[in-house]
Amino acid sequence: MDSITEIKTPQGSEKAVSRVQDTFIFESQGDRYPTRNTNGWRRGLQYNSVVFTSMPSIAYLYAIVDEDFLDTAKPINLSPNDLEFPDVAVMYESLRQQATNGTMKRYEAVDCMTAFATTFVNRYSEVLLVTNSTDTDSDVHDQVWIDTSQIPYAWICGDSYSSQPYLDKSAICTLATAIANVSRWELTGRPINYCMVNEVSLECKLNFSLPSMMVVIIANIFKISIMSIIAFTHRTNPLATIGDALSSFLQEPDPATRNMCLVTNSSFKSKDWTSQHPGLWQPKRRRWFEAASIGRWCICNVLCLATIGVGLFLLVQGMAGSGMSHLSDLARIGFGVTNPGAFVDVAMSSVTAGVLLANLPQLIFTFLYVIYNGLFTCMLEAKEWSRFAKARLPLRVSHPEGEQRSTGYLQLPYTFSMSFLMSQSQPLLVFAALMHYLISESLFLVYVPILLAGPEPPDPLNPMETIIQVGYSCIAIFVSIIVGFTALVILNLNAIFRHYDPGVPLVGSCSAAISAACHPPAADCNTAWKCVQWGVF
């Protein structure tokens, strides 16, 4: 049981090997900060469960009555129906008084349909459907308490529509269908002229989950502890950027890679450590995708396409289960809107279980984004490296000295765009934020207390039952698939059609290849603090 508080409202020298490991760390980070979130997935799943909203829904009553019911000069005739019980008689007497003294509002047929064409009703507790039919002795022809069926408002479309159309495989009632047939609106074979509606005012609530907050607090304490230990005990300079690696190797050249300045990262990865002698330099334009291994590209594309495929499967299943076959149907429902035919068929025992399931796609996207971001980081790292073949440039390091410059980011510049044309307005961060939003609208927690209508106003503190389910929005899933697939296409187009500046071997994030390029003349002991350019003596 959850505790919920409601708030209203390669081989070689040891040095080369250690640099391979250190450089790999910054290769996979595309954000600004140098720390890796080791427990972020746990907090990510729990953060969204700490605070969530709920809006009560009313299990309202609708009754079909004739005009005589509204005549206070006449006694209410409930016979021969099975409504002749004291409590029922008192209830209907109260409803008649409210209908005649102005408490209940008159809604014309179209307005009545519009008001009740929603899954969860929270503004109305009773509705009297007035007919001029007098084919029986009773003033009340039928009464129904609306439950949480698939289409609870099917009555606005008339007798021929079922409230369980997905189970019955029958036509689905929509507001457009109801309005189109308003002149022929009949229930129990009687024409409905207008409605008398009892309006109520219910407030939404902001709910606080104590167990989820405890998980977040413990995870953050653990993270802060690890960060503090690293900050106060780790005294060496970090290798957070390629400039840090270059500065380190220029100050302490690695003898294992001397006279190997033309070797590329692929040579080291294939363990092709050639003999230390001069080689033939052949400048070649390299494409962006060559900065990362083929295996890495395959992993990224296969995982992303597999996830998109699962999303498509769920979209098709969701549309079939909701009886929708066109995009216009999806757009009509909208983002994050609860549809009774769009619930995940998994029993939820608690709010936490529901939130964990609803946020599972967020975890999957975060994992894919780290891989996706890492590829962009690798390509841009190689782009920054290639610039040293064209001009003398200062090294971008974590702790600048001399002519070196500081860095405000690791490898992805702030203005790096998702656009193929590389406009300076929409960085990767916007894509990540957009995807997280779309995913949150695709699968979400449904927490609805059900209040029973009756003689007294519904009591939000005493719900008849509470619906805890995970709902989904087909249109949000569709848009998420489109945005995700577009981002994958942009990544591959950039990698295939863009080239690095020629004139320097491609090293990627291989520390051995970087060290091979960092062997300044013996007399030059201050190279690392000056503007540098790659060249061969």
What is the rounded distance between the termini? 73 Å
- Low-pLDDT sequence parts: 1-44, 417-426
Averaged pLDDT, please? 75
Q: Any idea what the shape is?
A: elongated
Gyration radius, rounded: 34 Å
What is the percentage of strand-forming residues? 5-15%
Structural class: alpha+beta
Number of strands: 15
Work out the helix count.
Answer: 16
Please tell me the total number of domains.
Answer: 2
Strand order of the largest sheet: 5-10-6-4-7
What does this structure look like?
The chain is of the alpha+beta class and 537 residues long. It folds into two domains: 10-32 and 239-529, no CATH class; 57-199, no CATH class. 39% of the residues lie in helices and 14% in strands. The protein contains 16 helices and 15 strands. The strands form five sheets. The protein has a five-stranded mixed sheet. Strands 1-11-2 form a three-stranded antiparallel sheet. The chain has a three-stranded mixed sheet with strand order 3-14-15. Strand 8 and strand 9 form a beta hairpin. Helix 10 runs antiparallel to helix 13 (360-386). It is elongated, with a radius of gyration of 34 Å.
